[in-house]
TrEMBL record:
It comes from Streptomyces plumbiresistens. GO terms for molecular function: ATP binding. This is Dipeptide ABC transporter ATP-binding protein. Belongs to the ABC transporter superfamily. Signal peptide: none annotated. InterPro entries: AAA+_ATPase (IPR003593), ABC_transp_ATP-bind (IPR050319), ABC_transporter-like_ATP-bd (IPR003439), ABC_transporter-like_CS (IPR017871), Oligopep_ABC_C (IPR013563), P-loop_NTPase (IPR027417). SUPFAM superfamilies: P-loop containing nucleoside triphosphate hydrolases (SSF52540).
Length: 415
């Protein structure tokens, strides 16, 4: 796509008031920090009784620090309830943080009000998990994809209709279907509509919350591939949230692993796959094997996490993972390990990391729970994840154009 084609002509809106301390005045070059998060927390209050007194809080996100660099894809993974979606909503400012700081292009946006956030909303967009509920069934595709222009008071060159049709084409949909309704499209096509809506205002950062987990495996690969192509063409920066590694492993430059509101490992993709350091990362990777016959011999390395994530209302003391970790010792129950860079490009929060020197070698006695924490996984349990992983890998590595889903006939596989 040429530059002319992809430029969304948006009239000047007037400069947003610059906060003191703003450090970047132009678009960050690839690799420069676009988003910086420090000490970010979100505690949802739990209220009870007639007086609605606060009796506790859900520690959904509990002090996280990371950066997103321009042009990269940061994958965020962790089991359900680890705080990934809350994190996504905090960085897009759909939720107000309890503590910490969010900086976008060097500007502190943590507590910007609705009007101050308005210009920022163009730069930061979100794609939601469920393409069935995130599109208003009573609105046509034209209205849905054109909504951001109306909300922002932006008149694209050539008018909204023309621009919406161009966007539909960009995401592989038929521009003639402008007047159709969401129910006339399959799941994969609806997610393409959500992507077109997110791209309408030419954003810099797109946060995709489980963008493909509601879709059939074969469709997942196409949508991931589309996101990948759009990144190359439009120079987008992504934060892609997923509950396992099967989807993000092929498209992420770096991966953050979350557990109970904390980042436990943050690493370059390759280092993470070659030598995961946090036992939780290793467990997540064990559940999503590389479909490689040579790995069959490594069956004993596959670890299945037992039990559920503990309640974020009263997270375990010390290392939050100690109640499910097969390496846990006494120190893990009392001292919270900080997230530190143990290898270049690989940060981990663990007293007894894998693939690295023990950080608490004096503490050698395993807790009783540690001895029962993990078990080997049967190959069948892994088959489904392996299928997803293989399908996405095959699509992403293909150097073909995006497969266009121009036929609105519902795909029988895609329900
Ligand atoms: N509005 C809210 N009020 C109270 N608790 C909430 C709210 N939103 C999320 N939570 C709680 O915060 C915790 C983290 O939720 P979150 O949705 O961020 O996790 P997640 O890792 O994205 O999980 P999932 O993949 O299931 O969405 C959960 O225990 C959830 O119940």
């Amino acid at each position: 796509m040429s530059d002319d084609e992809k430029a969304v002509t948006i009239p000047a809106q007037g400069d947003a008031p610059k906060e003191e301390g703003a450090t970047l005045t132009k678009d960050p070059a690839p690799g420069e920090v676009l988003l910086r998060v420090s000490g970010l927390k979100k505690h949802f209050p739990i209220k009870k009784g007639l007086l609605q007194r606060q009796v506790g809080a859900v520690h959904a996100v509990d002090g996280i620090d990371f950066e997103v660099r321009s042009g990269e894809t940061l994958g965020v993974v962790g089991e359900s309830g680890c705080g990934k979606s809350t994190m996504g909503r905090l960085i897009t400012r759909l939720l107000e943080p309890t503590a910490g700081k969010v900086e976008f292009e060097g500007r502190d946006i943590t507590h910007l009000g609705v009007s101050a956030m308005r210009p920022m909303r163009r730069d930061v967009q979100m794609i939601f998990q469920d393409p069935y509920s995130s599109l208003n069934p009573r609105h046509t595709i034209g209205t849905i994809v054109g909504a951001p222009f109306k909300l922002q008071g932006v008149e694209p060159e050539g008018g909204i209709k023309k621009e919406v049709q161009r966007l539909l084409e960009v995401v592989g949909l038929n521009p003639e279907h402008y007047n159709r309704y969401p129910h006339e499209f399959s799941g994969g096509q609806r997610q393409r509509i959500g992507i077109a809506r997110a791209l309408a205002l030419n954003p810099k950062l797109v946060v995709a919350d489980e963008p493909v987990s509601a879709l059939d495996v074969s469709i997942q690969a196409q949508v991931v591939n589309l996101l990948d192509d759009l990144q190359q063409e439009l120079g987008l920066t992504y934060v892609i949230i997923a509950h396992d590694l099967s989807v993000v492993r092929h498209v992420s430059d770096r991966i953050a692993v979350m557990y109970l509101g904390k980042i436990v490992e943050l690493s370059d993709r390759d280092s993470l796959y070659k030598a995961p350091m946090h036992p939780y990362t290793k467990a997540l990777m064990s559940a999503v094997p590389i479909p490689d016959p040579r790995r069959k011999a490594a069956k004993s390395e596959r670890i299945l996490l037992k039990g559920d994530v503990p309640s974020p209302i009263s997270p375990p003391s010390g290392c939050r993972f100690h109640t499910r970790c097969w390496k846990a010792t006494q120190i893990c129950t009392t001292v919270e390990p900080p997230l530190v860079e143990l290898k270049p490009g690989q940060q981990v929060a663990c007293h007894h990391p894998e693939n690295f020197a023990d950080q608490a070698p004096q503490d050698t006695v395993l807790l009783t729970v540690a001895k029962e924490a993990a078990e080997l996984v049967a190959d069948e349990v892994l088959a489904e994840s392996a299928e997803t992983s293989a399908a996405v890998a095959a699509e992403v590595t293909k150097e073909t154009d995006v497969t266009k889903e121009t036929d609105v006939t519902k795909d029988a596989n895609d329900k």
